[in-house]
Amino acid sequence: MVTSTAPVLVVGAGPTGLVAALTLARNNVPVRIIEKEPQHRRGQRGAGIHPRSFEVFHFLHVPEIHERATFFPRLQEHNKGSLEALNTFAMAPYTEPTPAIPYYNAKCMGQPTLEAIVREHLAKLGCTVELGTRLVSFTQDEQCVRVKVAKHLGDSGEEVEEDIEVAYLIGADGARGMTRKQLGLTFLGTTREDQFLVLGDIRLEAKGLDRDHWHFFGPLSQDMITFRPTNELGKDGWQFMMTSRTADLKGLVHDENALVRRIKDFVGLGDDVKVKEVMWVSEFRPNMRMVNKFGLGRIFVAGDAAHVHSPAGGQGMNSSIQDAFNIAWKIALVYKGFASLSLLDTYTSERLPVIAEMLGFTTELHDRTFDQPNAEHTPQSTADENGDSKPAKSNFERAMRRGGKLNMLGVNYRTSPIVVDEFVPTPTSGVAVVHSAYGDTQEGVLRAGDRAPDAPGLVPVISPNRALSNVLSGSQSNGTAGSICMFDIFASTHHTVIIFAPASTTPDVRSVLATLDQTVLKELARRVVVVPGSAFEPNGLVGTSSEADQAIDSEVFIDQAGHAYRGYVVEEQEARVVVVRPDGVVGAIVRGVTGLEQYFEGMFWKKGSVLAMDDH
Q1: Which residue of 73, 148, 167, 392 pairs with 4 in a disulfide if CB–CB is 3.0 to 4.6 A?
Q2: 387 vs 376: CA distance, rounded Å
Q3: How far is CA 375 from CA 194, 362, 395, in A?
Q4: Which DSSP category does 201 fall into?
């Protein structure tokens, strides 16, 4: 297969487009990213970042997002016209991170801050957002996509058009964007015509309104306004949202005075509330819609261009980021000639079930949130997303409870045509198998298609073709310098083949490594042998022959604390191979060579062809 030199074009520079562009750039694929707006976007918008998205940014080497994001403040209910707290509660209880799940809690960061961080990483790789540049039209054939774009020239309003050829096009241009419409994809669903929301960023002075809580005035089912404090907008900055079943909110985005009056009216505190500045404001009706497929030929849609839904649950930006990550690493492999075009078909087969299920339960969550009756402040039992029964003081609290599968840690591709699992239990005859693409995490269960767990405390013993390291027994703890976690081995640029074995020089290990050498380039699949902590001997070396070990063309780690063996559900004396994809998803769980060949033949070209192609 002839590799391309034309760039990949990403249309839209929100979180979706930026993650797609960064993933491609990390894989050394030339990319252009255009944005029709003349300036970078304003507005906190959807500010919730869930654990699965933090994992994506980890694999993309963007640690600042988790480091700078803040925890959600506790929610506080008020009656209109009163600062008295009727109820104060956490939307989701804090969950202590575990060795398998280092990011276990949602956090807040406005989209302008997130986007600026990702743009900085893109710029280091030589890619900058082309502002004021819109997609006009495109055509495609088997070889390329021919695109016409138009670029604004200053304040004159004039445009200059450019015709370009690109290898692939990713439309991350939103629900109203050009890509989906010209591609002719359906966008079926509903619009809640009777519900109208106004969202914005303001600077606000309000006597007695503390910045330690996310304040809600009035019931969500009638006239309601919320204020979430955010220092990203300044020490007096707030994100607000308002909705009403009794007042007409249309047109407020175009009439700042009317907006300010409505904000003060909804709070009901008179002159104790002063809106100092309206920084950004938008309006929308909740839409629940999705495409019938995520692409056609060489053109794909991601994020809001592919699906829109209620803001309840904060799944929008997060699912969009995962769309982008899924398609971008696959395009990178195909672009370089390592995989066939058919790999790109799995973007739809993997993401469509996830989004369909997400659309269903976020709609239910929306109805529970916005249609709940007036709050009755009497304790009642309620079950959260994890099924834990806890007392709730009001209907509002029950409606706002979050957590569980909203963390997206159970999102999986178990039904994907490219995953291979030799350990899946045989279904009982006559019993239907119910699969959830948005499942919950289950301790002690790992299937191909699931997220790969982290595992800290891996002590390096051997690097390829290098002598054994002298690992002192006193230094082999989880927090010891020199140890590494599994997430730091994974990256968006390669598969990781984890060979679990009682020792690093068993025949099983050697046969797997030999197969990899004959099948897959080292740059495409990082080889890692993980031996149990019991293989460690008092002399500080792995319990195998050092001469044999030095011949191993793979990294070898001791699972000192057993986190890897527990997380990947492997017995200490068992041999098992787990393949982790560039997106941190388990691609295969196999016994040895046969299953490994099956996976990589499905992922890349036929056996040996990747190596053969590299020789020419």
Answers
A1: 167
A2: 22
A3: 21, 21, 5
A4: E
Nearest to 595, CA basis, from 440, 419, 341: 419
Residue type (1 letter), 449: G
User: How are beta strands 31-35 and 129-131 bridged, if at all?
Assistant: parallel
CA separation for the pair 28, 71 (Å, rounded): 34
Residue 402 has what pLDDT?
77
The token pair at 6 is: 């034309």
Q: Tell how strand 287-291 and strand 586-590 pair up.
A: unpaired
Q: How far apart are CA 171 and CA 324, in angstroms?
A: 10
Q: What is the pLDDT of residues 590-616, one digit of tens each?
A: 999 999 999 999 998 654 445 544 444
Burial class of residue 465, CB neighbours in 10 A (0-12, 13-18, 19+): exposed
| Sign of the torsion angle spanned by Cα atoms 243, 249, 252, 253 | positive
The CA R_g of the chain, rounded to the nearest whole Å, is 26
- Residue 176 burial class via C-beta count within 10 angstroms: exposed 0-12, middle 13-18, buried 19 and up: exposed
Q: Give the count of beta carbons closer than 10 Å to the beta carbon of residue 251.
A: 11
* Cα–Cα distance measured from residue 174 to residue 542, given in angstroms and rounded to the nearest whole number: 54
User: Helix, strand or coil for residue 195?
Assistant: coil
Q: Tell me how far apart the alpha carbons of residues 26 and 128 are, in angstroms, rounded to a whole number.
A: 14
Between the CA of residue 95 and those of 51, 87, 402, what are the distances in Å? 11, 22, 12
- Residue 511: how many CA atoms within 13 Å on its side-chain side? 14
Residue 256 host element (H or E): helix 256-267
How many angstroms separate the CA atoms of 226 and 82, rounded? 14
Per-residue pLDDT tens over the stretch 317-369: 999 999 999 999 999 999 999 999 999 999 999 999 999 999 998 888 888 87
- What percent of the chain shows pLDDT beyond 90? 71
Residue range 147-168, pLDDT digits in tens: 999 999 877 778 999 999 999 9
**Cα–Cα distance measured from residue 323 to residue 348, given in angstroms and rounded to the nearest whole number:** 10
Could you tell me if 97 and 111 are in contact, meaning their C-beta atoms sit under 8 angstroms apart? no
- Cα 327 to Cα 375: distance, rounded to the nearest angstrom: 44
Q: Write down the pTM of the prediction.
A: 0.92
Alpha-carbon gap, residue 194 to 250, rounded angstroms = 12
* C-alpha to C-alpha distance for 302 and 297, rounded to whole angstroms: 15
Residue 513's SS3 state is: helix
Direct distance between the N- and C-terminal alpha carbons of the chain, in angstroms, rounded to an integer: 11
Q: What is the largest CA-CA distance in the chain?
A: 81
* Helix and strand numbers, DSSP H then E, in the chain: 15, 31
Predicted local distance difference test score (pLDDT) of residue 428:
67
